[in-house]
Amino acid sequence: MPTQLSTPNPHPPTPDSQSLFQTAIQQHQAGQFQQAETLYRQVLQEQPDQVEALHLLGVLLHQTGQHQAAVELISTAIALKPDYPEAMYNLGLALQEQGQLEEAIAYYEKALNLKPDYLDAHNNVGNILKVQGKFAEAIASYQKVIDLKADYPKVYFNLGTVFQQQNRVAESAACYHRAIQIQPDYPEARRHLNTLVQRCKSADLLIAQTAEAHYALGILLHGQNQIQEATAYLRQAIHLKPDYPAAYKALAVTLVDQQNLAEAIACYQRAIHLQPDYVMAHTNLGWVLLLAGRYEEGWVEYEWRLRLERYNSNLTDAPQWDGSPLKGKTILLHTEQGLGDTIQFIRYAPRIAALGGRVIVRCQPALVSLLRSAPGIDQVFGRTQDVPAFNVHCPLLSVPKTLRTTLHTIPAQVPYLFPSKSGVKISTLPGTRLTVGIAWASGYFAQPGAYETYLQKSCSLALFLRLLDIPGVTLYSLQIGRDAAAIDAHKQERLQDLSPQLKDFAATASAIAQLDLIISVDTAVVHLAGALAKPVWVLLPFAPDWRWMIDRDDSPWYPTMRLFRQQRLGDWEEVIDRIVEAIQSLEG
């Protein structure tokens, strides 16, 4: 079945039609199709070449079963704007609905040429190829989706149906399992899986001696955190099919989880040898090289991430800065990943400014006020704001490569961010000898694999409360977002909830500056504390993020930081034991 229609963020070209166009979109989104169609047509009477109105009216007509009219309107929009991947995709949908499958594939492929990680386009190409009986090609299309987004339930279901049609029971069952794991309320996947189980009667019959079966089961088991079992299946997949780049990439992921970095690097390199343009293998190889402290190689490979839509902001045609002297030019530094990444890499602003440039920054809105305290920055803008003209740009995580940062040349001078003089007010309770700010859950944002990372990096508030057994310790919660609600179940005097005051990171900086020590899992709070030169202790999972490297309890990025690593996968209790001992030694 075709997937949901893709709708871009519209940008009406004239102020006069903006209000009418926005109202049309609102009616469209609310399912008021007749009213929306009337409004779209009014916009087009005034501006017949309004590309977005042509496109969205075509989308609406497709949704109401007027497929040929939809094809004509969306085709007109594409003629006016040939670099419009969403329109290409939606034209493919309309053609697919009319049974024009080859034409639909052609437009999906045009969309993919413009936007290589367009998941639904890859998925729909797979659906058409499946209908045409081109199973191997369909599997390849679905695999591209999985490589880009490992937690996409729909594609696992579709892949499972292809395997089922080929009577490849093991792969099919593994795919349905994975779809249900990601989306428990997936009745079609449960129904198909039950059918397979009833046919097989025995779990042993679900293991076919094919590379694809072992690969699929390896992916499934890894998603269930059964790392060693997943590794075994992926090794067998490679044994059965030595030229299987996706299996080498998946095996490398499980090896990193076991801190076997050398073999993981070799697996990524083998995947790249087999498929030189394998973007995720290059990106992940960069990540692991950085984790291993091999910065010179790691930064180069990590640049491949910019070929992925989620990392490439596409905000400018200006050239990316190559590190040369700026000689009065304006450079835009822009964020691409999480809040902690922005805080960590904004340290480079003074060094860039020293090269003779004017530095402007485009960042997450929650960081705007805070980053205005950073030296070397002329102006800071939120992501939704327009920025003034600039000559060159650089994604923040590309700056270390551009400046050829090695492990020994990290600019580690702190502080490089500063709290405001007025901000959060903290009251110290009688008998308090040590004020400790805490955060127990990592930030979650919508990227492939983000939810699994959130779970891996997050602890429970109940474990942190063991710190209150130490006389004289008062805890101050710096946790924000949905996880802050956990405090409601643990109300006590020496646990103070600061979240109502933490409106942005400038407020959080003000709170941190008033505390003696910060103890947190790997989240933006630890980067902020480190940037403020505040003592900060970080709880790290067994397989940490690349910036913390392996087998060290300090960080070359933050001189005031101390690292407490899991000794066993998922074991936070032992980490808390060591933190309690460390606080008690401070008291001594």
Characterise the protein shown here.
Among the domains are: 104 residues, Serine Threonine Protein Phosphatase 5, Tetratricopeptide repeat, CATH 1.25.40.10; 73 residues; 154 residues, Glycogen Phosphorylase B (Rossmann fold, 3-Layer(aba) Sandwich), CATH 3.40.50. Helix content is 49%, strand content 8%. Helix 3 runs antiparallel to helix 4 and helix 8 packs antiparallel against helix 9. The longest helix is centred in the N-terminal third of the chain and has 15 residues.
Structural features:
alpha/beta; six-stranded parallel beta sheet; 10 strands; 588 residues; four-stranded parallel beta sheet; Serine Threonine Protein Phosphatase 5, Tetratricopeptide repeat; 26 helices; disordered N terminus; Rossmann fold; 49% helix
The multimeric state of the shown protein is single chain
Query: How many runs of DSSP E, i.e. beta strands?
Result: 10
Which residue ranges are poorly predicted, with pLDDT under 50 across at least 5 consecutive positions?
1-13, 201-205, 445-449
- Span from first to last CA? 67 Å
Overall geometry: globular
CATH superfamily of the domain at 434-587: Glycogen Phosphorylase B
Beta content comes to: 5-15%
CATH architect. name of the domain at 434-587: 3-Layer(aba) Sandwich
Residue share in helix: 40-55%
